[in-house]
Amino acid sequence: TSQNGKGLITVAQPLDYKQERRFLLVITATDSGGRSDSANVNINITDANNFAPVFENAPYSASVFEDDPIGTTVLVVSAIDADVGINAQITYSLNEESVNGIASNDPFAINPQTGAIVTTASLDRETTGNYLLTVTARDGGNPSLSDTTDIEITVTDVNDNPPQFKVPLYHASIKEDALIGTSVAQLSATDPDLGLNGRVKYLLSDKDIEDGSFVVDPTSGTIRTNKVLDRESVPVYHLQAVAVDKGSPPMSSTVEVQVKLEDVNDNPPSFPSDKIILYVAENSPVGSVVGEIHAHDPDEGENARVHYSIIGGDDSNHFSLVTRPGSERAQLLTMTELDYDHPGKSLN
């Protein structure tokens, strides 16, 4: 169009840089006398930042093993931009805020050019099992346009934790005459790993298995008696219990279980000999000590306290037994004057 003696070229319909990047116009100028001149006008179309980047395959999810080394590539995000040139040059970045409430401490970084997300710190599934990151793809236009997407990263468990017993030492007690199969102690161990890595079974040490006095249920952890016990032979058992997980390779921990046998009165007192011979002078005064009597009882406490008495014999009226306080022995004393011509006093 002609405007104030000048030719004004205007856009008559929408332009599309991707369809037509150059136009060639022939412009003719004609005066009132009919004289004219023509000129070629080249119009170059420049790209405008019309399109924002768009992530492909969004939203994203990925997994990474908790023992993968720092620098492991977790996944690569990709966005496309329908513009060209700098308007289509995309830069990737991780948003500062994350669902975990962690900003710069998130153990991930992204390559601004390639979109590769890598680990920047060691991972621990038992501390944080999932991360939700937000990634921005921004083009180089002015003003720039951008797109965002969420990325869910799951930390995959590895068997990096042994089972842990709830107490460092188990104490148990049981009567020595307990029946076979009697419950003695209840083991309990936990493993923070997942699946088979966190599934615990129980067993006793090879030494305890060989002894065979006790067995443990591999699933419940219940320790039971497995044979007749005798406190007088073994008063205390020091078992070694093991908790082992089912990971590959398995991990385990050990704890001591002290089992004390409680005494029952299952043993009678016994003299060192079936026949005890003592000597005393015939002129000994009444109340003289003939000798000491001692019997041993392998039980303990009240069950092992021995009381002495004369229960018979032809000459029982000539003697008496006296037990001193705190003594395990009894003294045999004369109660009458003795006569050598009538030797051989016999007591029961």
Automatic annotation (TrEMBL):
It is found in: Membrane. The keyword Membrane applies. Keywords: Calcium, Disulfide bond, EGF-like domain, Membrane, Repeat, Signal, Transmembrane, Transmembrane helix. One of its GO terms (molecular function) is calcium ion binding. It comes from the Eukaryota. Residues 1-55, 56-165, 166-271, 272-341 form the Cadherin domain. The keyword Lipid metabolism does not apply. GO terms for cellular component: plasma membrane. Its main location: membrane. One of its GO terms (biological process) is animal organ development. This is Cadherin domain-containing protein.
